[in-house]
């Protein structure tokens, strides 16, 4: 059975998967398996692997292929898997994208290369890659200017949607970007344009507001993915107030995990404490938590668990 490809109607939670390492910094494939199972048990709709949170730039090409093969085989047909293929080399993007699709991926996620300054440059970059990949490989545009330094305007997003049918999803991660999300939806509707899937990132920090502005779900890596799943389902069912109340229970920990600099280390430590991975190691160069950081995180987790017990 062939896995379902991502499409304009994709929605729900596509978890940004961490890449587990051992305490010495080597790939931990047993933890890759246990983390994959953890995400599935929490009810995620799909996966996004080898993204920025997955520390993809720190992996060798051989390690990239190993992680991709391991996750795709573990997930099988149970959920769609989007593979991050962003790279400075178009040839690398093409090779990895085609390999991923041959092995059962549902699509690829692509951020613009650095130093694109104009709308024309951004459009031409994506146009070139889209032609290389062909119409059979679904593309998720990753709009993450805080990391790439590239601003993707609403007009460029719409032109790419109009010109390339394989552009089926936007990972919306501009910051602040809620007005941009509204403009994408409103201008698209006004023009009778093809509606694509929009999944939001930024740790899920603004998920309730973004869902109300037209997002279809989340593509982020919060260490309590069951919250993201439940909130998106509640919004999808029109139970908006209930969704936001639930979100607010997790907000202190979610906000803490979102910190630039040490956020990934906090996320991995939480996943370790939840039994999903064996080591919280972040490959160097990367953040390390000190004793105060660890105690602070533990206190927030305890407060969350106590509150969840009260609600239960």
Automatic annotation (TrEMBL):
Question: What SUPFAM superfamilies does the record tag this protein with?
Answer: Aldolase
Binding site residues for pyruvate: 219
Question: Which keywords fit this entry according to its UniProt record?
Answer: Lyase
Which Gene Ontology cellular-component terms appear in the entry? cytosol
Give GO terms: molecular function aspect only: 2-dehydro-3-deoxy-L-arabinonate dehydratase activity; 4-hydroxy-tetrahydrodipicolinate synthase activity
Which SMART domains does UniProt cross-reference here? DHDPS (SM01130)
- List the Pfam families hit by this protein, alphabetically: DHDPS
* EC numbers: 4.2.1.43
What superkingdom heads the lineage?
Answer: Bacteria
PANTHER family, per this entry?
A: 4-HYDROXY-2-OXOGLUTARATE ALDOLASE, MITOCHONDRIAL, DIHYDRODIPICOLINATE SYNTHASE
What family is this?
Belongs to the DapA family.
Protein name in the entry: L-2-keto-3-deoxyarabonate dehydratase
Gene assigned in the entry: araD1
């Amino acid at each position: 059975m062939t896995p379902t490809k991502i499409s304009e109607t994709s929605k729900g939670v596509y978890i940004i998967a961490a890449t587990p390492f051992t305490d010495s910094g080597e790939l931990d494939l047993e933890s890759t398996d246990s983390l994959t199972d953890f995400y599935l048990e929490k009810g995620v709709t799909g996966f996004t692997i080898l993204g920025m949170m997955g520390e993809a730039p720190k992996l060798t090409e051989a390690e990239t292929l190993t992680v991709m093969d391991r996750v795709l085989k573990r997930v099988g047909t149970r959920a769609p898997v989007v593979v991050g293929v962003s790279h400075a080399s178009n040839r690398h993007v093409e090779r990895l994208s085609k390999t991923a699709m041959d092995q059962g991926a549902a699509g690829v996620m692509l951020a613009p290369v650095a130093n694109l300054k104009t709308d024309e440059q951004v459009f031409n970059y994506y146009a070139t890659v889209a032609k290389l990949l062909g119409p059979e490989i679904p593309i998720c545009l990753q709009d993450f200017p805080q990391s790439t330094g590239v601003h993707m305007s609403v007009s460029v997003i719409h032109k790419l949607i109009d010109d390339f049918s394989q552009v089926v999803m936007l990972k919306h991660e501009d910051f602040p970007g809620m007005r941009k999300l509204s403009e994408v939806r409103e201008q698209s509707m006004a023009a009778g344009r093809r509606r694509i899937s929009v999944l939001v990132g930024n740790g899920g920090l603004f998920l309730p507001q973004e869902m109300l502005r037209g997002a279809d779900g989340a593509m982020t890596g919060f260490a309590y993915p069951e919250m993201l799943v439940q909130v998106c389902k509640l919004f999808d069912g029109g139970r908006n107030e209930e969704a936001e109340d639930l979100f607010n229970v997790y907000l202190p920990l979610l906000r803490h995990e979102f910190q630039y600099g040490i956020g990934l280390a906090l996320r991995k430590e939480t996943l370790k404490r939840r039994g999903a991975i064996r080591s919280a190691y972040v490959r160097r160069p990367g953040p390390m938590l000190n004793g105060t950081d660890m105690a602070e995180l533990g206190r927030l987790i305890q407060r969350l668990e106590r509150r969840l017990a009260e609600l239960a």
